[in-house]
Specification:
2 copies of one chain form a homodimer. Chain A is 72% helix and 1% strand. Chain A is mainly α. Chain A has a single domain (2-287), classed as Farnesyl Diphosphate Synthase (Orthogonal Bundle), CATH 1.10.600.10. In chain A, β1 and β2 form a beta hairpin.
């Protein structure tokens, strides 16, 4: 059933483009290249770039027109997973059903592979994104802000710092918004920016993305509790073992599910209210409530 | 004597600007902010941004016109030092005479502080660099290429991978060019790009920077052998202890010094042949042969 809910044809486009872009560093040291490829070709859902492409599609743009930026965001996501999994951070051995980067290539190479992916994300946009310079700069700024000291890294810092400690609901929300939400929001907004969306559309896309981002993190937390490691492809039950602050740990399972449902429904209402082709944006939102991994 | 040789007035500009830019993430998690400030305010020579400013000055530009990009390069350099010092990479306890970032803030926060600095480097340029969009994109591409899988990270990977192993002279040169040279070259080229240097000037500045970059790395290797930890502010003699591939280990001290002198003299001849105000570019080159840290 899943294939009717999730835009696998967009995943295919992303994977094809990624295969092209990574050829740019084929003269890079072999072990670095292998670590990057291993992490990047790890069979992810490509959730963020798919969202970026879906937004472009909803506005009548060609998917190819935003593909470099979409792929760059996937590189940043991949780098963040490699660093998050490191022994000194989340110390995770399993990711998408396979040993994590540092388990295969060592901690040093994993750190460097993450660093390289971050740089190459910017390089892909700077080399391949065919848009007006102003639009490229706007997209880069979205991505830079989403990944930096007020975005993804801030969220991860709070996560690390408060693991095993009491956290307020407001801080939990803020942590999740920074850690996961902002890059998802950037993916959506970059799709819209590069397709010259109006300010009105930008605002609505942003609200759509905020809801989607929160729902994504909540369902992620829920899956960690209810699924087997085999299903989710990473060590299940790890959040609880590590005393992580999660939605289920704060609100309980039932209420967490309700919040996720509400966020998805809000996201859907927003795109339904826009004069765009919202079909896939709705399907992607609904997919979050049904996903098993 | 040093103050007549090194442009301390440019260091001052850089430090002032850095103090302004880092206020942008004053709402970032406290521990992350502290780790970033600690590493960034560690009293470095600001060699790369100083070069960028000196190139701008040589072309008659105002220093302020390139300061954001110059500072961004310092952020990238700082991030690379934090990651290089990590236990799983160079495992260094001392940097510029003070405990390394991970010794103070822990390995997890050090990794995250490096990650944040990298993102914030791009953010500074995107927010503060007042140039034509095309020029900004050109500068970003220089920096992205210099830091990525074919630049700094490639050099660091080769360094890690070949530590304790035999390496060819060609590979040693290539490693140093990637690890240290390319960011130095980017600093020089960005100064020139943002000041609309002609293609002829660009080529000469690039050759100046290539020579400077190599001389910088050779003198760095030499200092590691001949200086005390107190003088160089990091653990002296570490290269040899760790079986690192260095210029002295491959060519011996005397020949290494000769190569450095030759590179400096070539760099000076290049800028002397240009119709620019080359005073500080020459002084910076000469400084490399006299520096003690």
């Amino acid at each position: 059933m899943k294939k009717y809910l999730y835009p696998d044809f967009l995943v295919k486009i992303i994977n094809e483009k990624l295969n092209i872009y990574i050829k740019d560093y084929k003269t890079s040291p072999e072990i670095l290249r292998k670590a990057i490829s291993y992490s990047l070709k790890n069979g992810g859902k490509r959730f963020r770039p798919v969202l970026c492409l879906a937004v472009a599609g909803s506005l009548g743009c060609r998917y190819e027109d935003v593909a470099p930026t979409a792929c760059a965001i996937e590189l940043i996501h991949t780098y963040s997973l490699i660093h998050d999994d490191l022994p000194s951070i989340d110390n995770d051995d399993l990711r998408r059903g396979k040993p994590t980067c540092h388990k295969i290539f060592g901690e040093d190479i994993a750190i460097l592979a993450g660093d390289a992916l971050f740089a190459e994300a910017f390089n892909i946009i700077l080399k391949y994104q065919q848009s007006e310079s102003e639009k490229i700069i706007e997209a880069l700024a979205e991505i830079g802000q989403a990944s930096g000291a007020l975005g993804m890294v801030a969220g991860q810092t709070v996560d690390v710092f408060y693991t095993g400690k009491e956290i307020t609901r407001r801080k939990l929300m803020c942590m999740h918004k920074n850690k996961t939400g902002k890059l998802i929001i950037a993916a959506v907004r970059c799709g819209a920016i590069l397709c010259n969306a109006s300010q009105g559309h930008m605002n609505k896309f942003t609200r759509y993305a905020e809801n989607i981002g929160m729902a994504f993190q909540i369902t992620d937390d829920i899956l960690d509790v209810v699924s087997s490691s085999e299903d989710i492809g990473k060590t299940a039950g790890k959040d609880s073992l590590q005393n992580k602050n999660t939605f289920p740990s704060m609100f309980g399972m039932e209420k967490s599910r309700k919040i996720a449902e509400k966020k998805v429904s809000e996201a859907i209402n927003i795109v339904k209210s826009m004069e765009i082709n919202s079909e896939w944006l709705i399907k992607i939102a609904n997919f979050l409530l049904l996903r098993k991994s």
